[in-house]
Structures are given as C-alpha cells and as structure tokens.
Amino acid sequence: MVGKKNIAFGFLYLVLTAALGPYMVKTVFPDIQQAADNRQRQMADLQLLAGSDFERDLEPVPAADIARDNTRAILGLNRYLQAESVLNDIKGGPHAHGNLEALLNIAAGITLCFIAAAPLMKQLVSWLFILGTLFHSGVLYLMIVFKLGWAQQLLGLGIGPVLLLAGLLLIGVMAATGFRATPVGDA
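Given the sequence above, the corresponding structure tokens read:
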C-alpha cells in the first residue's frame, strides 16, 4: 500500500517534532527564567528609584546614575525578550508545523489506502507529502534548532509549502473521483 510509508513517516516524524517539547523545557526555559529574574530585579530597582522621586537616602540621584539604572533595566528587558523569542521560534516553527505536517502525512497515508487511482499518481502524492514536510518543517528544524544559516535560504524558496499544497490538491481530486469504502490495492 502506497500510503503505508506516509503513515510510518508521519509517526516517526511526530516523535522527532514532539521531542522539541522536552528539549524546550530542558534547555530554553532555564534561560528564560534567569533572564526574567534579572529583568525583574533591574525593573524593581528602577521602579523604586522612580517611586522615591529619584532620591536615595533623601539625596537627589545624579543623572548619570539614573541613566545607568535605566540602561540596566532596558538591557534586562531586552535579554528577557531575546530569551523568550528563542522559545517562540521553536514553538511556532518546527514544533507546531512539524507536528501538523506529521499528522497530515498520517491522514494522507490512510486516505491513499482508500483511493482507487493509478499507482504512479498515488506514489506522486505520497512523495509530495513527505518531501513537502521535509522541505518545510524539516528545514525549519535545521534553521531554528540547529541554527544552520543556509537553511533559511532553502526555506525562502518556498519548496515545502508548494509541494504540500500540490499534494493536498491532488489527493483532493483523487478522493473526489476514486475514494472507496474499503482499502484498495495498488496493483
């Protein structure tokens, strides 16, 4: 059955992309927490200074000290936002798209088992889904998790989404004309 490889690929790929969850908890969350603690400390210092009308020990705080405190607070906020953006990049990129495309391959594989169509067309659709997944969320994985700069160039070509859309279009047309109630052989 042609769809069998999509089902197997989908489940194996789902393991790979779902594993990003524990990876984020182990490697990214501690950085975010540390940056958040630092940001909070810096902002609290600045808030106390502003709340005391920029005085310490009843003496006006020199402008240079205020500027330094302000700079520390801004830099602390920036470090926190950068740490959080790493998490958002992983969640919104390879994790979310990879999980979705893994499930899409499973659904396409099951659907292909019930479509009566030329074996070559079924193979084409099957490979469109697999290659589309690899060229989209697979490249996101390389770009965001492994930080391979060349992957961004490949992603920018849009090959993966085009392959996935072509696969969706073809499987939709094939399902409209050849979907059966029982599994179909590929011979």
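DSSP finds six helices and two strands in the chain. Try to locate this feature in the token string yourself.
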